Amino acid sequence: MGDFRAYTMEERKTYLAPSCQRCGQHRHIVWEKVPDTETYLPRDAGCSNEACTA
Predict the structure, then answer these.
(1) Rounded to a whole number, what is the largest CA-CA distance in the chain?
(2) 3-state DSSP call for residue 20?
(3) Whether 49 contacts 34, CB under 8 Å
(4) What is the spatial distance between Cα 5 and Cα 42, in angstroms, rounded to a whole number?
(5) What CA–CA distances, in Å, run from 44 to 35, 36, 38?
(6) What are phi and psi of 12, to 5 degrees?
(7) What 3-state DSSP class applies to 12?
(8) Distance (Å, rounded) from C-alpha 46 to C-alpha 27?
(9) Range list of H helices, the chain
(10) Which of 15, 32, 45, 54 fits a 20 to 30 Å CA distance from 24?
(11) Which pLDDT tens digit goes with each residue over 2-46?
(12) Quick one: pLDDT at residue 15?
């Protein structure tokens, strides 16, 4: 996840998580609030496929 762009609450609704390079399913995203702003950074929390080892 090389994207370091901060997203507003409205933009978060349309954010499409990247796909896992191993199995192709979307990855879990955890949103981290940027201090002193109303924006959030997406953080990778691993593959959404529980059987995937990535």
Answers:
(1) 38
(2) coil
(3) no
(4) 8
(5) 19, 22, 20
(6) -60, -30
(7) helix
(8) 6
(9) 9-12
(10) 32
(11) 457 899 999 999 999 999 999 999 999 999 999 999 999 999 999
(12) 92
How many residues can be counted in the chain?
A: 54
Tokens linked to 39: 């924006």
The first and second tokens of residue 25, run together, are 């399913």
Task: Enter the tokens of residue 20.
Answer: 């896992």
For residue 9 the two structure tokens come to 């609450």
Residue carrying the six token digits 């990855």: 27
Query: What is the rounded CA–CA span in Å between residue 48 and residue 19?
Result: 9
Scanning the structure block, which residue is given the tokens 């370091």? 4
Which two three-digit tokens encode residue 47?
Answer: 């593959």
- Judge whether residue 1 has pLDDT over 60: no
Residue 24's identity, in one-letter code, is G
For residues 33 and 21, give the distance between their C-alpha atoms in angstroms, rounded to a whole number. Answer: 27
